[in-house]
Amino acid sequence: MTSLDARTRSHSFAQMRSESPSSLFTVSMHFLLIYLSIYGLISIYVDNIVIRSLKDVGMVFISIFSFARVYRHQVSFLNPFLFILGSIVVLGALNVLLGSSVVTLIYGIKITFLPLVMLFTGMLIAQYDGIYAFARTNLIIFMMLIAGWLIQYSLGIEKLITMGFVYGVNIKNYLEGVPRLSSITYSPDGYAYALLMTGIIAERTRAAVNHRSFRILIQLLTISFLLLSTIRSALLLWFVYQVGMFFLHIRKYTKKNTLILGVTFILLPAAVFFGGKMLQSKNLLSSSSLLDRLQSWGSNLTSPFTMNGMIGNGIGSVGAASRRTHMIGLNSSNFAVDNQYFSLYEQTGWIGIVYFIAFFMWIVVSLVKRMDKLPDSNSLRLPQVGLALGAGVAAASLTTNVLELLPANVFFWMFIGMALYQYREADDIHYKAGELK
Fold it and tell me: Does any domain span residue 427?
């Protein structure tokens, strides 16, 4: 029986290898990742419909191709996933029948939901063992983001304004004149979240997995430049992610894990004290912006006891989509929200929130199942990273529309897709074999 199992697995793996995506697709996928990273910088200088549409067309074709390749291998996960996602989109589109703009709907779908379906591409990458290649590309983007920030910092805010950067949009000053820069992205928030996502994914490169010192270097660069960015919600995401990874690492009882947990709790008060002092010295504990948001939410959110509170105001009615449609001259609320939960509520109502809870819970349950199947020797630990990263995104979403920030949202969903697919059938898939290059 063991021999028959081995032959069956070998045949299944050989069949998957024979269906491996073409080199054209692989190159296109990695090129798209690079293009998404620098698109924000390009859009500052080029306001062209072709340039703006190129990224969307690329994501549509790549996600459709990926879905066609992974669907039959992931039917049990994807059928409920597609049903819930489709229900959310239909619910969010109902306002078109009540007179809402179709253009607003399209912008809402392409800003929030198009990056989400790149999850299929993440699954395809894992299916054909391209995880290391994906991580390498993220490492390249990570270094590009840092280099771009350093160049902008050396130029200064005044020089950047003369070069076409818009103050208050692409660049700005934080308290006491600390610069907030966009690097190769469109905004300081976009830079901070792209840096965070690519830094975490870059820790999954072969060099980082095999050499702890290289992984620690990436982690130090990530937290250092996150602190320099002064984007506090991104720092919150990083902190929650680290805490989540720590508890997932020691979740199994051993003497070593018990010792680690004991030492951690002993050192925790000192870490909180000195960490708080450091954040206070950089004015990162200021509450003025949070108070402004609370006032804005109280005066602008739709009542849950109305029809719009039940089914929402339509996809794209608030958030990044509403800001964009306002810029092109359409009648729009121009309401950024700065809270992903409220943004989803405004667009799909409390019925949509129920669907979203079911949607994310289905992903969490699936990740936990993948995690439980992993051998202890697995060094990538993608499901654990996916769960910790999801917890961080959930925390940061309290003050930021995290799922609307390009390119970080694309990287996030692709990584979740990889974590969901890993070890679907067997625990002995070798990452080297069949790696996408």
Answer: no
